[in-house]
Amino acid sequence: MLTFKQSFFMVLILFSSIFIIPVLMGWGKIMENIWGILFQGISGKILSGILGISLIWTILSFFTPLNIKVEAPSVLLGLFFFFKNKLYQEFHHFSKKDCLVLSVSSVTAIFAGSFYPYILDHFGYYVPTLKWLTEYGLIKGISNVDLTLGQMSVWHIFQAGFSNFSDPFLRINTLLLIIYSIYSIERKNWVHLCFLPILLLFSQSPSPDLPVIIFSLIILNEITAGNKNTTLLFAFSVFVFTIKPTMLWLPVFVFLNFVLICKSTFKQFLFGGSILFLFFIKNIWTFGYPVFPIATGDVGVPWKPDPEILKISSQFAIMKTYDMQYTFEEIQKFSTVDYIRNWFSLDGIKSKINILFVLSLVIFSVFAWIKKRKLITLLCISLLIKSILVLAFSAQYRFFTDVFFVIFFVLFYEYFDRKKSIITFSALSLLCISILSFPELIQRSIPSFRVGSFMTGFEKEQIYKPATYEYQQFDTYKVGNFKFNVSHHYPYSFDTPLPAITPAYLSDDVKAGIFPQLLDKKDIKKGFISKKMTSAEKEEAQKVINNIKNTDK
Question: Could you tell me if 387 and 361 are in contact, meaning their C-beta atoms sit under 8 angstroms apart?
């Protein structure tokens, strides 16, 4: 069983936000001096700062870990420009009513962020990624240790850079919700407040799903409002794509809008193109191919994952499409009709989400056809392109969640004024906080919603301490030249000392007859490569597997 540790005062989440926001505004001012203004206001500077510091840290992470030696000077530089340019004066522009709305939304976000993390990727993907980034930086061929580590999302690079002392409890998403509130109030586009309560469910973990939803809605709002800053809007849309490639629709939409409607020139897309190039280089460095987890665009690097591991991953993605309710062999026997019918008739809530997704696309397509506005038509085409690719690759609902937000925004952004949005925000916030505080409500009403079963509910200690987990039980093994740690009787390695391998991925390696090895046995920073095991290494690996199985018993 996991032991609980609540080691940081909840009030530090507030202090962390107060501390990091000026840093990001300072970096935003630096970006504005170089590339111009994304859009006016506090939130415009913050978003420019996020873009600038994320790109710089991505480049630095090739050469150095994102530890305190990187964070400290970055923070000091941001604060220097914040005070030098007297950016604090911009907060005086808020009215008393605006300050009240911002205070309520911020306190709500901070309270939601104080709950225990419950998204499984927090333990199996987010935290291990952050540990590698802060201790080693971007490691060549890290996907050979654990395929999921090959993603190394730019959002996790951003979080890692602030995780040493600015945000050691990994609540950067809580901060982003506060920033989103600032944007909604500044732009007087109140419909965004309606989204905030639902997004509270992402505030406990550094999930990349939250920033891509928020950033895409902001960019969509800016384009709808007539912002014609081609260079920065396209660059930021590509930045969103680098956080989560399933957001392909956003740069496609922005590109089509500026080419077909605004008649932008080629050089205005160069900044965004350079971000895309950096993204490809990062993925080739960590994964071996330009876009994770697709094994296309082979440039012949020797540290790319073994084909058998990629095959296993692909099969798993297909099974996840059907919520693991069918084996891969059963899915292979599906006819075209079976593929569609079984996806719509899965047991539990997943089938309802799938039906709603397709229905939403149909409604939006009809809406676009009726309106006959170029902007809406281009958005519809972009969403359909993304949806077709997702359906073809792995039609999991978490890959198309953003589509619901976008469609709702376009259909209702003119309907929700300040009063309606605040009422909706209040009601939905109460509902979402109730779900987090009393998860048995959702566990009883929607038992098939598995994520709900990992919610632990409200504990009075979290009023002054944000909730965190601690496990720190592991065993150490060695196969070939690679000495590694495996979590003891637990499937994830969120706080296992590095280098660490999850039991499931270890088992896949052994089945494939390969194992990760150090390119330089004296230096982990030189990276990893997959090698076929010798007979002696197979014996070593099998002993590890047997020991893990015996421990589990």
Answer: yes
